[in-house]
């Protein structure tokens, strides 16, 4: 996909990767960039920084009616949506002890929001014979987020759903990409480090933390090549192969890392 003259919607657009995507898409010549976020004020600030092509919308991705309204209003205002970026995400920083409310929130934000987005945008995209969905799934979706059970489980589900969409709709002109970065310098990582979450410490110890703008560079390249898996950290592909070929050895290596960090 070439971003010139495209209409783009980004959820979770008020910071981190979402804000970087908004800036980069505008720089690439997008006709409109809709910055949607639960924090309406922060979304407005990002849109103001992006410029006149950007529009801010306050909305909750876990409310399907609000997702439908976002899509309908955008299509009415601009005539279409070329690229929908389902980018909102949450972590818990915990394991099986996380309560049901925490698991439910992770499920609704990290998985169901993608389902709601697909339900809303696919009819018009299919009618036009084209469109692209970009889903921020995280490297946790192909590996494991050590220290965060709910994040791991829901991000695996998100990758699985994205793959299902790609297989089901590719021949009808719909492109699907799963964005799977590892460590990114975002508020989510900073908050995890401040709270002492093991997963955040593992990411920081890896020494491979990218900026959101670097992730946006990878997204532009991935969209241009219509890749399913967009891996800003290329080493994730090698890790995934190692995990598939030798799951016991892969797990042993992670356990060793966890023991070192806990010590």
TrEMBL record:
Keyword Transmembrane: no
Residues that span the membrane, as ranges: none
Gene3D superfamilies hit by this protein: NAD(P)-binding Rossmann-like Domain
InterPro entries associated with the record: KR_dom (IPR057326), NAD(P)-bd_dom_sf (IPR036291), Sc_DH/Rdtase_CS (IPR020904), SDR_fam (IPR002347)
Record's keyword terms, sorted: Oxidoreductase
Family to which this protein belongs: Belongs to the short-chain dehydrogenases/reductases (SDR) family.
Matches recorded under PROSITE patterns: ADH_SHORT
Pfam families in the cross-refs: adh_short (PF00106)
GO molecular function per UniProt: oxidoreductase activity
Keyword Oxidoreductase: yes
Full protein name: Dehydrogenase
CDD domains reported for this sequence: SDR_c
Record domain Ketoreductase: where: 6-184
Domain of life of the organism encoding this protein: Bacteria
